[in-house]
Amino acid sequence: WADLITVTILHLLGHRWPKQIEASEPLPDWADPDGIIPLTPLANESPLLDRVQARLNANEIDASDFAQVMGKPLDAWLATEFFKHHTKQFKKRPIAWQLQSGKFTARKTLAFTCLVYYHKLDGDLLPKIRTQYVGPLRQRLETELRGIESTAVGARSDRQEKRRAELEDQIEELCQFDAALAKVVTEGFASKQLTEIATKEP
Question: Could you tell me if 169 and 110 are in contact, meaning their C-beta atoms sit under 8 angstroms apart?
Answer without folding.
Answer: no
